[in-house]
Amino acid sequence: MVTGSHQSDIADSSLAGFGVKRIEWADLSMPVLATIRDRFSRERPLDGIRISACLHVTAETANLMRTLQAGGAEVLLCASNPLSTQDDVAAALVQEYGAATFAINGEDSDVYYSHIESVLDAKPHLTTDDGADLVSMLHSKRTDVIDGVLGGTEETTTGVIRLKAMAAEGVLKYPIVAVNEAMTKHMFDNRYGTGQSTLDGIVRATNILLAGRTVVVGGYGWCGRGLASRADGMGAQVVVTEVDPVRALEAVMDGYRVMPMLEAAAIGDMFITVTGDKHVIDRHHIEVMKDGAILANSGHFDIEINLAELESMATGVDKARPFVDAYDLSDGRRIFVLAQGRLVNLAAGEGHPASVMDMSFANQALALEHLAKNASSMPPAVYDVSGDIDRDVAGLKLQAMGVGIDSLTDEQQAYLEGWHEGT
Ligand code: ADE
After folding, report:
1. Measuring CA to CA, how many Å separate 333 from each of 118, 130, 230, 309?
2. What is the 3-state secondary structure (H, E, C) of 76-123?
3. pLDDT averaged over every residue in the chain
4. Does residue 374 fall inside a structural domain?
5. Which of 347, 380, 410 is a domain's end point?
6. For residues 3 and 305, which has the higher predicted lDDT (pLDDT)?
7. Does residue 60's CB lie within 6 angstroms of at least one atom of ligand 1?
8. Which residues of 166-179 are buried (b: 16+ CB within 10 A; e: fewer)?
9. CATH of residue 308
């Protein structure tokens, strides 16, 4: 299918009508992005810029694409996870919004990577990534198009970690703004977005009652904090596992039980990983788990649960219901894995609600505008979003929510800037 001058690859273009409804519904909760879109359509800061994006193909992402287009950009989009694509949204992007899209829910690994190549074939000036798979491909298999790239943005913690490793090795070839590091991104998206959408995905997949269950949260970063507090709010007994002593202490003082995963493994009813690291749940943990334990992951990649080990321990695997695989172990226990260990909030649910993606994607749009103006004078490195952008996004969000705040009086401002006044 041809979109503008580019081919697209989506599941079913007849779904476009549903996709439009979904995109418009999300837009109602994205007032900050809408304000930016209005300004972009007047000022056209992205005129002549081609942007290749590798993001979850959701209604919220579609509204980001519309905003970038309003600014004058040509956009191409592929999925940042094989299971997160909303096929109706992909259809709407192609049919109604003229955004070349390469994403099919359930695509296999070969198709996933071929779709990343397709958005790179367009020779982008800017890149937008969620997890750094696109940047990684640009710096390995597809260095042929890297010279034309001015800069990029990265959405998530895992991607920022990968990019910092590339910068430390001296291989990063262009400047990338770490949108995840904006306070108006991680304090809200990672905490309240992941907190709510992970439980939403789990409940949609299983319809289990959380009250009274022991829920083990692996990792107490911003996502873990949000998840623990939401599970606690639903009446679960929350246990936290951590490797960082400061975060572990914070979890203790926030009122949770903290223990090593091996101890937690024996008492948990449900395990949710949000660490960003490998094999947080491994064979020796599974060996001591209760019959019926449920395992889910909401970290970016499907590496947190060692599924290969679980498979080798299993005598059979059965689909208990959509998004729930039952692994039969030789001792008679059954272990349930949700969404094949992939992001459960996006695979079994719809990802973070629009009102939180509003701020994340406002940061994305403003960071891309900044790069379009300034990238040529920014050496290759990983950059934070400027504090001004963070304050603007927070201010616009408060305004949209009808929340007023105080401002400093001249006397207060002078006091904060001085040192003479004491006791
Ligand atoms: N990441 C988490 N939730 C998301 C959503 N709704 N859209 C795009 N990316 C996301």
Report:
1. 44, 37, 29, 15
2. EEEECCCCCCCHHHHHHHHHCCCCEEEECCCCCHHHHHHHHHHHHHCC
3. 97
4. yes
5. 347
6. 305
7. yes
8. beeeeebebbbbbb
9. 3.40.50.720
Ligand 1 atom at shortest distance from the alpha carbon of 197: 3
Is residue 422 one of the residues assigned to a domain?
no
> Each residue of 83-134: pLDDT tens digit?
999 999 999 999 999 999 999 999 999 999 999 999 999 999 999 999 999 9
CA of 216 to the centre of ligand 1 (A): 23
Same domain, 227 and 162: no
Query: What's the CA-to-centroid distance between 352 and ligand 1, angstroms?
Result: 5
- Res 39: pLDDT: 98
Residue of the nearest CA to atom 9 in ligand 1? 56
Query: What's the CATH number where 20 sits?
Result: 3.40.50.1480
In one-letter notation, the amino acid at residue 169 is E
Mutate to test the pocket of ligand 1, among 33, 197, 274 (most ligand atoms within 8 A of CB): 197
pLDDT score for 423? 86
Phi, psi of 134 (to 5 degrees): -70, -45
Residues 116, 132, single domain; the answer is yes
- Is it the case that residue 205 has pLDDT exceeding 70? yes
Q: Do residues 38 and 56 share a domain? A: yes
What is the pLDDT, as a whole number, of residue 2?
A: 59
Short-list 71, 30, 73, CA closest to 49: 73
Looking at the structure, do residues 319 and 299 belong to the same domain, yes or no? yes
Residue 220 belongs to some domain of the structure: yes
For the segment 123-155, what is each residue's pLDDT rounded down to a tens digit? Answer: 999 999 999 999 999 999 999 999 999 999 999
Read off the pLDDT of each residue in 262-278 and give the average, rounded to a whole number: 98
Q: What pLDDT is recorded for position 6? A: 79
**Å from CA of 361 to ligand 1 middle:** 10
Please write the tens of the pLDDT for every residue from 171-194: 999 999 999 999 999 999 999 999
Give residue 56 CA to ligand 1 midpoint distance, Å. 6
Whether residue 163 has pLDDT greater than 70 = yes
Domain count, the chain: 2
Within this chain, do residues 134 and 116 fall inside the same structural domain, yes or no?
A: yes
Same domain for 360 and 251, yes or no, is no
* 56 ligand 1 Cβ < 6 A: yes
Same domain, 115 and 179: yes
Give the distance (Å) from ligand 1 centre to CA of residue 242.
Answer: 25
Q: Is residue 406 part of a domain?
A: no
Residues of the domain holding 77: 2-185+352-401
Q: What is the pLDDT of residue 367?
A: 97
Residues 6+ apart with CB under 8 A from 108: 82
Distance 334 CA to ligand 1 centre (A): 31
Q: What angle do helix axes 222-233 and 194-206 make, rounded to 10 degrees?
A: 50
60, 156, 298, best to mutate for ligand 1 pocket (most atoms within 8 Å of CB)? 60
121 and 179 fall within a common domain: yes
**H or E element in which residue 148 lies:** none
CA of 325 to the centre of ligand 1 (A): 24
Pocket of ligand 1 contains residue 300 by CB under 6 Å = no
